[in-house]
Write a structure and sequence with these properties.
It is a single chain. With 354 residues, the chain is an all-alpha fold. The chain contains 19 helices and four strands. The protein has a domain of 46 residues. Helix 8 packs across helix 9. The radius of gyration is 23 Å and the shape is globular. The chain starts with a helix and ends in a 13-residue tail after the last helix.
């Protein structure tokens, strides 16, 4: 028995490695050393997560086999469903996870936009928590601030406006933290070459002042701002918008505010395309692949469709149900709960937004 298990584990490991390598293959892999490329693509992150889930669910997985588990895990990574109902630390762990979460949020709740519904920041945060229960409120608030600017945070927002602002804030969160610090330094006239040495008596130098209304309205010189951002992109390896597109955004103005910069990023078509998680704004309410899949599923249950159509209340019932199948080994019970709660929010109407 021990030999069989060891053989199964070895086979599963080989299959997992094969799936992981196929998932990460791209032409630029030939330009980097092996270990550097694996680190850049976060292959070890997924291997570690897969093994952790294997150990946590070993009783259930033993019925299907380790090889099948690894195959399905990496298939879910390729499909982007591996982030559903996972903890926030995992969904932000890699750029692929972040893009997958953005795509999942769009596909699950695009009917909000199709219905023309306007929601508050707290309501959008509730939708985010349906996919990630511990999603931090602070990130949702920052995304709403991009849309609302100086308006009250309880104002209503369209789905497309919030989604595009949320994409920038969520995907580039670390980059934007550094941008806010640079902006504040430029406002205060601080020398960019100044180095702050930490002391044991105080750690206050690590905390940047919050951007107030006066600083938001005052703005900074766009050319100087870009020089600092260009250096920032060169120094750091975390995700940031393509420098050429950032330069394009800043070349159209002489001065700009911090939130004006964020608004420009969120509305820039090229940055959205470079990130690759969402379609263009005009296509946000359309998802032919999802609609085709839903039609296929509905076609498999003709009796249910017939009974719903014949019902007098048919016009009040949702015509489609979003598909939210995630990786099945860990979040299955969560997926059933969320699907049951969301059945009443999928009615499709014509898009009223431009």
């Amino acid at each position: 028995m021990a030999t069989e298990r060891a053989g199964d584990l070895g086979s599963g490991s080989r299959r997992a490695t094969s799936c992981a390598c196929q998932m990460m293959l791209s032409p630029e892999r030939l330009d980097l050393p092996d270990y550097e490329y694996l680190a850049q693509r976060h292959v070890l992150t997924y291997m570690e997560d897969a093994v952790c889930q294997l150990l946590e669910n070993k009783e259930d997985i033993s019925q299907y086999g380790i090889a099948r588990f690894f195959t399905e895990y990496f298939n879910s990574v390729c499909q982007g469903t591996h982030i559903l109902f996972r903890e926030f630390s995992f969904i932000q762990a890699t750029p692929h996870n972040r893009a997958s979460f953005l795509r999942a949020f769009w596909r699950c709740f695009r009917t909000v936009g199709k219905n023309g519904d306007l929601l508050t920041m707290k309501e959008y945060h509730c939708l985010l928590q349906l996919l990630c229960p511990d999603f931090p409120l602070e990130l949702t608030q920052k995304a709403a601030r991009i849309v609302l600017m100086d308006d009250a945070m309880d104002c209503l927002m369209s789905f497309s406006d919030f989604l595009l602002a949320f994409q920038i804030q969520f995907y580039y969160s670390e980059f934007l933290e550094s941008v806010a610090a640079i902006y504040q330094d430029l406002l205060s006239g601080k020398n960019p070459n100044t180095v702050i040495v930490p002391t044991s008596s105080s750690g206050q130098h690590r905390q940047r002042p919050v951007l107030g209304e006066s600083s938001m309205l005052e703005g900074v010189e766009a050319s100087l701002f870009y020089q600092r951002l260009e250096n920032l992109c060169d120094r750091h390896k975390y995700s940031c918008p393509p420098p050429a597109l950032v330069k394009e955004v800043l070349s159209n103005v002489q001065r700009l505010t911090f939130y004006g910069f964020l608004v420009a990023l969120s509305k820039h078509r090229g940055i959205n395309q470079a990130l690759g998680a969402l379609p263009d704004k005009g296509d946000l309410m359309h998802d032919p692949a999802m609609d085709e899949e839903l039609d296929r599923l509905l076609a498999q249950i003709p009796d249910l469709v017939t009974s719903v159509t014949a019902s007098p209340e048919a016009s009040c019932l949702p015509s489609r149900t979003p598909h939210r199948a995630g990786f099945s080994w860990r979040p299955l019970h969560h997926a059933r709960k969320v699907d049951a709660e969301s059945d009443g929010s999928t009615e499709e109407t014509d898009e009223s937004e431009t």
